[in-house]
Amino acid sequence: MAEPEANELKPVAPQPVEPKPTPEDGVVEALSGITVLDLTDSVAGQFCGRLFADNGARVTLVENVTGTRLRATADLFAHLNLGKSGIAVDTASADGLAMVRALAERADVVVVDSGEPARIAETEHWGRIRCRITPFGTTGRWSGWLGDELVFQAMSGTMNENGVDGHEPLYGCGHRVSYAAGVIGYVECLGLLLGGASDTSVDVCVAEVAASMSYNRATQFSYNGSTEGLDARTTPRATLRCADGWLNLFISADRWQRTCEGLGTPELVADPRFLTQSSRLEHWPELERELEVRLADRHVVDVVASAQRYKAVAAACVSPSGLAEDAQLAARDYWTYWGDTTSVTRLGPMFRMSDTPQRSHGGPPALADRAGAVA
Amino acid sequence: MTAPLTGTRVLDLTSAWAGPMATRLLATLGADVIKIEGPGRIDSWRGAVEGGHPSRYPDGEPGARPYDRNVQFNTQNVDKRAISLDLKSPEGLAVALDLAAESDVVIANYSAGTLDRMGLGWDVLHARSPRLILVEMPAYGHGGPYEKHVALGPSMEFMSGMSYLVGYGDGRPVTTGPAYLDPMGGFNGAAAVLTCLMARARTGRGQHLELAQREAAMHWIGEEIVRAVRTGQDRPPRGNRIDEASPHDTFPSAGERQWVAIDVRTDAQFRSLCDLAGRPDLADRYPTLAERLRHEDEIHAALSEWTRTRDKHQVAEQLQAAGVAAAAVHDGRDLLGSEFLWARGLLSWLVHPAAGRHVYQGLPLHVSGVDLGPRRPAPTFGQHTDEVLREVLGMADDAVAALRARGVVTDAPRV
C-alpha cells in the first residue's frame, strides 16, 4: 500500500468511543445516539458513513490491518472519514471477526460493500439496518463487473450528452456517482430508522444510481423514439469566453430579453435569427458567436454582476482553488478546519439546520498499528 | 412492512428538477407529497403552456394539454398529488398556510428571501406549527453578495469548481450533461429533510433547514477542493484521461456517435485488452502505467481501429468477461433496452391519464420487505385539488367551488 502523500495533514487521535449524548452546551445533534459501523472500502460506503458522522452519529470505521485502500489518497480519505473513530482488524481471523461482531451487535446501522464482511453481516443479521453498497449489485451476470466513475457514467445516459459535439463524450470528474450512492444509502437508512425498522437490508447499486440521475432520456425514448446526444439543441445554455474567464448563461424563453439587457446587448433582442426560443435554439452557435464577440473584452465578474441585476442566469467559472477566495463562501463563514493546527481545510456543512447544526467531530481516524480494542 | 415515510406529509413548492427530485425520493419512501402549482406559475418542467419542443411529448405531439404530457415533469413527479393554488391571492395564501399547518415538511427551491416575500417564511410557518420543518434550497444560500443571484444547474456547476475539472484540456470548462447539479441537489435535499425529521424525533420541534445547493454539491468533489485550496494548484482536465489509469477513455464504436468506455487499472488488464484486440504487441511495448501514460495517443489510435468496427455493447461484454472494466456509452435507446436496469427494477411501465402507457425511469431505492416501486403516475395539473382540500382541510364542496369561481384554484393554467 502506498504511503499517504506527504503534506500538512495532521490526523488527530481517534475520537472518544463514548461521546456524551447531550453535549454540555445543550446543543443536540440530529443523529445523536445513533451508532454506525462502517466496514467499507469504497468512496460510496465511506461517504455514507461520513454523512452519519457529520450529524452526530457515532461512526466507527473498521479497516483491515493495512488500512483501507483509500488512505493512498490522503485528501480523499480525510474528506470521507472526518469525525469517525476507527479500528484496524483482521476480519479473516476468528478474533478479529469476534471483535467486529461485538461492535455490530450494538450498531443501529452497518454499512458494507463487498467481500466476506458483507456476507457475514447479512447472514448474521448485523445491526438494525444493513446497508450494502456495491458497484453492480449482488445478483445477475453484472454483479462481477468491474467499474469506476468512467464506467458508471457511460452506463448512466448522462455521459452521452456530456461534452462538445465533434469530440468524444466526457465522463466528468472525480467520483460523483459514488458520492451519490453514499447519499442514497444514507437516505434509505434514515428513512428506515424513522419508520422504526429492524433487521432490514438496504441494497444500493452505484451503476443504477448513476442511471437514475440521467435526464429522463429512457422515458423520452419511450415517449417518441428520440434521444439526445452532444449534437442536441434543446437546452439553451452557453459557455462563453470573456477577457479573463469563462461565463455560463442559461437563456430560457422568459429570460431572453432581460439577458440581452443585462449583458448590454439589447440589439440582439429583435434580431430575426433569435426572435423565438425555437429560432434561438436553431441558431444557437450563431448566438454564441454574437455574444462572445461582444463580451470578449469584458471582465467576467462584471458581466455576471450586470446580468444578475436583470435576473439573468449567469455565472463565472470558478476553479477549485479559486473557491478559497469566493466572496459568498467567505461571507457565510463557510470554511472550517480540523487538526491541531489550522492548516487543514474542511468544507463547510452540506446543509444548515437552525436547531441541530452540524458540528465538527475532529479529523479522520489514524490507522492503529495493531488491532484496536473493542469499544 | 409499510413504506418508511408512510404518514409523513410534504407540501411541495418546488419546480424543475432538483426540488422535485428531492420530493420524489420522499414520495417513493412513502410520504404524501402534495405539489402546489399556481395557475399563472406552473412547474417549469411542464414546459410552455401552449407546448414546446416535440421531443418532450408522446409521439412528438403536445396535444390539447401539453403541460400534462411533458416527459420531464411526468418523470420527476411520479407518486405525488398536485393542486392548483394562486399563492398571490390572499385566499390562496391562507389555504397554503392551512395546508402547511397540516404538513410535516414544506419545501421550496426559490432564491433566498422569496418565501418570506410570499408570506410563507419561517417565522410565519413556525409560529403556526412548531413541529413543521421548512426546507429552502437556494443556489448560494442566505446572506452574502450572491444571495439574490438566480441560478440553474449549469450555473451552479460553474460556481462549484466542478466545471473547471471537466473538459478537453483546451481551457474551456464543460457543464455536465443538461444540468447535473440538479439531481445532485435532489439527493442532497432528501438527505437533509430526513436528517431534520430524525432531529424532530429527538426534540419534538421543527426547524429551518437551508440547503445551499452549490455548497452541498461541493462535497461531491471535496477531495479535489481540499487539495486545491491547500496547494493553490488545480488539476485541469485531460478529457477522459487520468494519471491513475491508462487507457481510461472512450473509443469510437460501430455506428454514428457510438462509443465504448474502457478503464484499465493494472498491467494484466492491459494485456487482456490487447490480446482481445489482436494487438499483443501493444502490451509488450507499453507494459507499465508510466509507459502507457507517455504513449496515450498511440495506444488510443491503435485500439480505436479495433473498436471502431464493433458494437459497443459486445466490446464491453467481452472486456468485462476478460476482467477489464468497460461499458457502452448509453443513449436513451440503450437505457430503455438495458437488461441491467430492468433487472434492477429502475424501469417500470406506467399508464398516465394524459400521456398514455410508457416506461419510466425510477429511483434506485431498495429495501428488504418493502415494494418501493412507483404507485401512481405524475399528476395532471390541479388533478387532486378538490381531493386534497376536502381530505386535508375538511373543506366543503361549496367552499372549493367558491375558490374555483374566484380563480384561486383552476383546472388549467392561465396562458
Largest sheet: number of strands, sense, barrel closure of chain B? 6 strands, parallel
Topology of chain A as a string of helices (H) and strands (E): EHEHEHEHEHHEHHEEHHHHEHEEE
- Terminal residue distance of chain B: 45 Å
Q: Which strand order do you get reading across the main beta sheet of chain A?
A: 3-2-1-4-5-6
Which blocks of ≥5 consecutive residues of chain A have pLDDT under 50? 1-22, 369-375
Number of helices of chain A: 13
Shape, principal axes of CA atoms of chain A? elongated
Beta fraction of the residues of chain A?
A: 5-15%
Mean pLDDT of chain B: 97
As an assembly, this protein is heterodimer
Query: What is the chain-wise order of helices and strands of chain B?
Result: EHEHEHEHHEHHEHHEEHHHHHEHHEEHH
Largest interface: A-B, 147 and 152 residues
Span of the ends, CA to CA of chain A: 27 Å
Mean pLDDT of chain A: 89
* Residue runs with pLDDT of under 50 for 5 or more positions of chain B: none
Model description:
- By secondary structure, chain A is an alpha/beta fold.
- Chain A contains 13 helices and 12 strands.
- Chain A has helices at 43-54, 74-81, 94-105, 116-123, 149-156, 176-194, 206-212, 217-224, 256-263, 277-282, 284-295, 300-309, 327-331, and strands at residues 35-38, 58-63, 85-88, 109-112, 129-134, 200-205, 237-241, 246-250, 313-316, 336-338, 344-346, 352-353.
- In chain A, the strands form 3 sheets. Chain A has a 6-stranded parallel sheet with strand order 3-2-1-4-5-6, with helices on both faces. In chain A, strands 7-8-9 form a 3-stranded antiparallel sheet, covered by helices on one side. In chain A, strands 10-11 form a two-stranded antiparallel ribbon.
- In chain A, strand 4 (109-112), helix 4 and strand 5 form a beta-alpha-beta unit.
- The longest helix of chain A has 19 residues, at 176-194.
- Chain A is elongated.
- The relative contact order of chain A is 0.15.
- The model of chain A is unreliable at 1-22 and 369-375 (pLDDT under 50).
- Chain B has 415 residues and is of the alpha/beta class.
- Chain B is built from 18 helices and 11 strands.
- In chain B, the strands form 3 sheets. A 6-stranded parallel sheet of chain B has the order 3-2-1-4-5-6, sandwiched between helices.
- Chain B is elongated.
- The model of chain B has no long low-confidence stretch (mean pLDDT 97).
- The interface between A and B is large, with 147 and 152 residues.
- Strand 12 (352-353) of chain A pairs antiparallel with strand 6 of chain B, so a sheet runs across the interface.
